[in-house]
Design brief:
The structure holds two protein chains of two kinds. Chain A is mainly alpha-helical. Chain A has two domains: about 250 residues, no CATH class; about 240 residues, no CATH class. Chain A contains 24 helices and no strands. Chain B has two domains: about 170 residues, P-loop containing nucleotide triphosphate hydrolases (Rossmann fold), CATH 3.40.50.300; about 70 residues, no CATH class. Chain B is built from nine helices and ten strands. A six-stranded mixed β-sheet of chain B has the order 6-7-8-3-9-10, with helices on both faces. In chain B, strands 2-1-4-5 form a four-stranded antiparallel β-sheet. The radius of gyration of chain B is 18 Å and the shape is globular. The chains are: A mainly alpha, B alpha/beta. The interface between A and B is large, with 44 and 46 residues.
Chain lengths: ~550, ~250
């Protein structure tokens, strides 16, 4: 146990930079921006969080009105399961297999199970922080629907502690088995990436099918459905419970007189799944881990033709982009975090409705779009810009360099090449995302080419200032000292700061467009003004970033 | 040519003086060995020369260009190999060298010839098409050496270059360093291997606690020591002795 606690402590120090967080340095005048920035981020997020709390409250009230308040906890726990599982896969992958401290740990006389357990607990603690933010309002709202009190608080604490254990254990089992059975000499990274995406697609597809079947009512049976809902206050809970028994037990702990049984079932199942995860880790973790960093070497010299082809000269910025993009695509953790959105977003919006037959649900939307075409096009443009905001490639551009940053810093690279070279990767990913969505969108809604092009072009151009903002944010405080690449692209505050800064930019643009629509400004003129504003901000930000990188490069230690 | 003028660098908000007002000139055509105990300030000095650290005071002139005022132009003049070269693990050796060649804008024929020449010298041709993560420490060191040489720099800066190299590659590197100087260029390198320094350096600088405490040719150092001594003895003597101004060349 002692060993686990020591390992956990080290993991936490490494992962959350706790030493810096609690150092006296933070209180010094020079570093005062750090807590101030944190306060600023909290304030920026506060309105959205307030809206979220309001949303939870209104869901609770709506469910109460239809006599189905017990469904609130089913919804919340199912969503929590999905989120923990989805993120858990990436975290487990990063912490178990790609963290550079693992090699050091396995050479020490530490029980293998303790290494795995300490890593599991590190990820679990991280999940608690995330879940706490989203679930505390749900528990509070739920307390108004059932009888609150000390017992309610105790039940909530037990369930909150147990909740992420199951999805994280399943994620750990999946990743451990995946790493074990794809530990094949040759293209192991490729096998792993393909299997991971295939699994995520199956998982997402399955969820959509379940959701669709769960609440679908056969034509003609609507009356029966509604009367059942009013007669049986656990009707929705039971329907969902057929697919998600753990969520059912979770909710019944609050809504059943037999709550001890359901709490026992929930905690017992959690313990069983956790034990299975430990068993699988014990059996397969090291088999999957050994050789993770192994790379096959062909040991074959290039011939003159190959030399000639590879060594073709390119401008500095192209070379910086190629280097950045290759590393991005070849590092599994970067690929999952930065490139996966390019595949997942179009998949959710386009491929999934086609595959699951939920595409017909779009028909009311199509009518709405056709009736308000100009507003809809502006909303699409904003949505396209939001996809750029969601991608962490720009705001981790320098952080991803880690210990390799000495290379760029000691080379005679023009400042403009630094910026343009690093701007291309996020822009390529942005372009791929919005292109896939535009093509897919065209399948559902037949619009004139010009109407397809407007959000595409303006949304693409909008990605430039947003990515530049991301680069500037990351340049301000690049996170270079990491042993786990996960830290650069997932636990990097720059992503959040970049998102908030991007959100402010988009909000300003949305506000202006709203005004333009209010005063009935000609649509073509609105688009021209938008393009003008985006171009102007791109130029200003580009000029600033060049000046800033010249100042920052020699002073980053 | 490299000129270091009154350069100082402190860490921990001025509490730790890593480099304390050092000045010296490194002329073309010479190999200057930079020696000193652990933590003496060698790597800090080298990092300031290559632009990875900013000096608190003083100036560093490379080929007549101040590296603080015009860093990009200054960086064009040197090739740098750090003590522990961390190179992109997910690039192939040849891709890394192409990147470096593009940065220095080396013409295609010239880069091809340079890469072929040095990869054969260091016996790395067979591995250039492999990912860097399949390389051993020594192979990474060789890749860093090739990347620092392909643009034929006027100043070749190496921090502990012999660490991790096999005996044959160390020998080849020493030959390259000598040839480089014979072409009228200069080599500045730090090392702990005193035999190597004694054998190949035209001049030697010893740094201790951030100060240059000895500077000169081997003969000059021996003369100042007043007796026929090995570099090892001189090194031990000056790094133990607090007042060793006698060892600094005027």
């Amino acid at each position: 146990m002692n060993q686990i606690m020591h390992l956990l402590k080290i993991n936490l120090i490494n992962s959350f930079n706790i030493n810096t967080l609690f150092s006296k340095e933070i209180l010094k005048k020079k570093n005062i921006w750090k807590p101030l920035l944190f306060v600023f981020i909290v304030i920026s997020i506060a309105p959205s969080y307030y809206l979220y709390i309001g949303m939870v409250e209104s869901i609770g009230k709506s469910l109460l009105m239809i006599n189905q308040e017990s469904y609130l906890m089913v919804l919340a726990s199912t969503a929590a399961f999905m989120v923990v599982f989805f993120f858990g896969i990436f975290y487990v992958m990063g912490y178990y297999y790609f963290s550079q401290d693992t090699n050091l740990l396995i050479s020490l006389p530490i029980k293998p199970n303790n290494i795995v357990l300490s890593k599991f607990l590190t990820v679990l603690l991280y999940e608690y922080v995330l879940l706490g933010i989203f679930l505390i309002p749900v528990f509070v709202v739920n307390s108004t629907l059932v009888e609150g009190g000390i017992l309610y608080i105790i039940k909530s604490i037990i369930l909150f502690i147990a909740l992420p254990v199951t999805p994280l254990s399943i994620a750990a089992i999946f990743v451990t088995l995946l790493m074990k059975f794809t530990n094949i000499k040759g293209r192991k990274d490729l096998y792993r990436i393909v299997s991971m995406f295939a699994f995520l697609f199956v998982f997402l597809g399955l969820q959509i099918i379940i959701q669709r079947n769960m609440m679908s009512v056969e034509p003609g049976k609507e009356q029966e459905f509604i009367s059942q809902m009013f007669m049986d206050n656990k009707f929705m809970l039971e329907t969902a419970g057929r697919f998600y028994p753990l969520s059912k037990w979770f909710s019944l702990t609050f809504y059943s007189n037999n709550w001890i049984l359901y709490l026992g079932l929930f905690v017992g199942t959690t313990a069983l799944i956790f034990a299975s995860s430990l068993y699988v880790s014990n059996k397969f973790y090291f088999k999957g881990l050994i050789g993770t960093e192994e790379s096959t070497s062909k040991k074959k010299a290039l011939n003159s033709k190959e030399y000639s082809a590879v060594l073709k000269s390119s401008p500095q910025f192209i070379s910086i982009f190629l280097k950045d993009f290759k590393v991005l695509l070849r590092t599994p953790i970067y690929l999952f975090n930065c490139v996966s959105t390019v595949i997942i977003i179009p998949f959710i919006f386009i491929v999934m409705p086609l595959m699951t037959g939920t595409g017909d649900m779009m028909s009311p939307l199509i009518g709405l779009i056709e009736a308000n075409l100009e507003t809809a096009l502006l909303i699409f443009t904003g949505a396209f810009m939001m996809f750029s905001l969601l991608n962490p490639t720009a705001s981790t551009s320098f952080s991803r360099e880690g210990k390799h940053f000495w290379i760029d810093r000691s080379l005679p690279i023009n400042y403009s090449s630094h910026i343009i070279g690093r701007l291309i990767s996020p822009m390529v990913l942005h372009l791929a995302t919005i292109l896939a969505i535009t093509i897919g969108f065209n399948y559902f809604i037949k619009l004139d080419l010009i109407y397809l092009l407007i959000p595409f072009v303006v949304g693409f151009l909008g990605g430039i200032p947003l990515s530049l903002i991301g680069l500037i944010v990351d340049l301000k405080r690049p996170l270079l000292d990491w042993t786990n690449p996960q830290r650069a692209v997932k636990q990097n505050l720059n992503i959040l700061i970049g998102m908030v800064a991007n959100l402010i930019f988009i909000a300003a643009l949305v506000g202006l467009n709203y005004l333009f629509l209010k005063i009935d400004l000609n649509f073509t003129l609105i688009i021209i003004v938008d393009i003008g504003l985006i171009s102007l901000s791109s130029i200003v930000l580009y000029k600033y970033s060049i000046k800033y990188i010249a100042e920052r490069l020699p002073s980053i230690n | 040519m490299l000129e270091i003028k009154n350069v100082s660098k402190t860490y921990s908000k001025g509490k730790v003086k890593a480099v304390d007002n050092i000045s010296f000139t490194h002329k073309n055509g010479e190999i200057l060995g930079f020696l000193g105990p652990n933590g003496a300030g060698k790597t800090t000095t080298i990092k300031m020369i290559v632009g990875l650290l900013k000096p608190d005071e003083g100036s560093i002139i490379i080929n007549g260009i101040d590296n603080q005022e015009n860093p990009i132009e200054a960086k064009k003049s040197f090739g740098y190999v750090p003590d522990n070269p961390q190179i992109y693990e997910r690039l192939k050796g040849i891709e890394y060298l192409k990147f470096i060649s593009d940065v220095f804008q080396i013409p295609k024929e010239e880069r091809e010839a340079s890469i072929k020449k040095y990869s054969e010298i260091f016996n790395l041709s067979h591995a250039l098409n492999d990912m860097v993560n399949s390389y051993s420490h020594g192979m990474k060191q060789k890749l860093a050496l090739i990347s620092a040489l392909i643009h034929k720099p006027d100043l070749f800066i190496l921090d502990e270059p012999m660490v991790g190299l096999d005996p044959k590659s160390s020998f080849k590197l020493k030959e390259i360093m000598r040839d480089h100087c014979d072409e009228g260029k200069c080599v500045f390198f730090s090392t702990h291997v005193l035999e190597v320094a004694e054998k190949i350096c035209d001049r030697i600088a010893i740094i201790n606690e951030g100060k240059i405490i000895a500077l000169g040719t081997m003969e000059e150092l021996k003369e100042k020591a007043g007796k026929e001594e090995t570099l090892e003895n001189i090194f031990l003597e000056v790094t133990d002795n607090e007042s060793n101004n006698a060892f600094i060349e005027d």
